[in-house]
Write a structure and sequence with these properties.
With about 350 residues, this protein is an alpha/beta fold. It contains 9 helices and 19 strands. Helices cover about 30% and strands about 25% of the residues.
Length: about 350
């Protein structure tokens, strides 16, 4: 990893692009090869601090330079049409305009997905690690959303990252800055620079005590993406020594302490599995997922391996043809078949 290299394009290289290869899941089945094979190897983009200068900033973390959308600030390329036209017109015509103080350097590291727990840990915190030593030079711009105000700001404290100031961008406003910098995506979301993720893990877990507990993270309080027969599953999980937790019941420091004490973490595809970052190397992550027959939703496999853990999966029975992301399907889990994963691989 390198730093301090000034590029001709007005950006500063923060890290190199790296090639990453992940071993297949520990309980890989031949019939599931299509779900994992294409995601086994990829290259990151590398990290860079990009100078924009005068710019408009939407609270969704979208940047406009002279009225033109900076596509690198989008979470997905497919969002470009909406943000270039409809969204920008709405903000310019109907939103209060806030001019940020002159003489300060503003930094943007988020995108429209950043208020999700997985995306904050996987996409945003690695960028902040890259600029930790120069954070005091910048005012950090963040969306004013409940997750950011709580977990987001708490994570800055845990990591000891001190910016000159943090400005929370009100959802109804549109911001203008004279000196804007931003860090584009280091890699596609769900893929990782392994060395950088280990730096992040070490920084987050510096004062934590590892353990061997078994934790099942429930989504019973979530609106979507649930285990439909979880009540049937809980007695089975208790029999194998699992504690049942809901991640939203705890602040970030409490989550860090609880999950650092886990040797095994199990749950349906969802943000709670991102807490595997707090577990020690050699721990085990079991993801309850849907067989997608293609390289979809493999971010937790990548994350677990990036922080030195063994990844296992279990294909549940979906209640629809929707993918297991966003407001997608729910799963039914057969305890008897799941038991074979536990007994044959992790007991």
């Amino acid at each position: 990893m390198t730093s301090g290299y000034k590029m001709d394009t007005g950006s500063e290289k923060l890290s190199d692009a790296v090639q990453t290869r992940h071993p297949f899941p520990a309980n890989m089945q031949k019939e599931d090869l299509a779900d994992f094979e294409a995601g086994a190897s990829y290259s990151t983009f590398g990290g860079r601090l990009q100078y924009v200068g005068k710019a408009g900033i939407s609270p969704e973390s979208v940047i406009y330079k002279n009225g033109v959308l900076l596509r690198d600030s989008l979470a997905l390329p497919g969002q470009a049409t909406y943000y270039q036209y409809r969204h920008q017109v709405k903000k310019l015509l109907f939103s209060p305009k806030i001019r940020l103080a002159r003489g300060k350097k503003y930094l943007l590291v988020t995108d429209s997905w950043s208020s999700g727990h997985f995306h904050w840990i996987a996409d945003v915190l690695p960028k902040l690690i890259l600029v930790k030593d120069k954070a005091a030079e910048f005012v950090l711009l963040l969306p004013d959303l409940p997750y950011i105000r709580t977990v987001g700001l708490e994570s800055l404290d845990i990591l000891g990252i001190r910016f000159e100031e943090v400005v929370l961008m009100r959802p109804e406003a549109f911001y203008k800055a004279d000196e804007l910098y931003y860090i584009p995506a280091i890699t596609i979301s769900g893929q990782f620079d392994v060395s950088l993720m280990k730096q992040l893990k070490n920084a987050l877990c510096d004062q934590l005590r590892p353990g061997t507990k078994r934790i099942y993270i429930s989504r019973s309080k979530a609106a979507v993406r649930k285990v439909l027969n979880e009540n049937e599953l809980i007695p089975f999980l208790h029999r194998y020594g699992f504690e049942i937790l809901n991640g939203e019941d705890y602040n970030l420091k409490e989550q860090a302490r609880l999950f650092s004490e886990a040797g095994i973490l199990m749950g349906i595809h969802g943000a709670g599995l991102a807490n595997c970052i707090f577990m020690q190397e050699g721990s085990k992550l079991i993801e309850l997922r849907k067989k997608e027959n293609g390289p979809l939703n493999v971010g937790y496999w990548h994350l677990a391996d990036a922080v030195g853990q063994k990844y296992y999966y279990f294909n549940g029975k979906p209640d629809s043809n929707l993918p297991l992301v966003g407001s997608g399907c729910n799963l039914t889990i057969d305890p008897g078949i799941l038991e074979s994963v536990i007994l044959n691989h992790i007991a």
